[in-house]
Amino acid sequence: GNSVTQMEGPVTLSEEAFLTINCTYTATGYPSLFWYVQYPGEGLQLLLKATKADDKGSNKGFEATYRKETTSFHLEKGSVQVSDSAVYFCALPKGHNAGGTSYGKLTFGQGTILTVHP
Amino acid sequence: GAVVSQHPSRVICKSGTSVKIECRSLDFQATTMFWYRQFPKQSLMLMATSNEGSKATYEQGVEKDKFLINHASLTLSTLTVTSAHPEDSSFYICSATLNRYNEQFFGPGTRLTVL
Q1: What percent of chain A has pLDDT over 70?
Q2: What gap in Å lies between CA B47 and CA B53, rounded to an integer?
Q3: Which residues in chain A touch residue B104, judged by CB atoms under 8 angstroms apart?
């Protein structure tokens, strides 16, 4: 099945600093790629997605480009804010097995804790 | 956008009791819902896949009799933690699949504390 490796944290930045969280994947074909964000005490929210190679997903100042050459989907933001403090998860479909029981399942990276200080 | 709710958001119970957690898709029909468990500072662990009108599919290592899942309608799935013990204390999150691109919409989570 597909797998994802995510940059380990925690990451601590000052406000207005540049952010990069690395994510690389191993997959069959070209599945959709996702970044989810989890704010303290809450469930996950979809931050952005890309459905095909070379697509750039963007939302709330965050961007990630689907790069098939490097099998990467790094998350970037030019100027972080205190309110961006959260856990960020890279994810992609789990892939299909012979029984087809993986439909709809996602596999997640281990998560990166981001803390932004004023 | 698609909204998924969970109820309750927090529950505290005594050891040996059963707890039911509801997951609802509020503005769309979800044929497939997922249940996750998350330990502090860790990633999500998929527990089971819930399909409307059929039995849930459990991931390896998850006790079916311990975590009962019922997907009664296209907008409701329930997770019942039976005979809960302190080691079942965790954050339980559900999600629902909207389309073939595997995009999932997550509920806000339920914090279970077993005393």
Answers
A1: 93
A2: 18
A3: 46, 104, 106
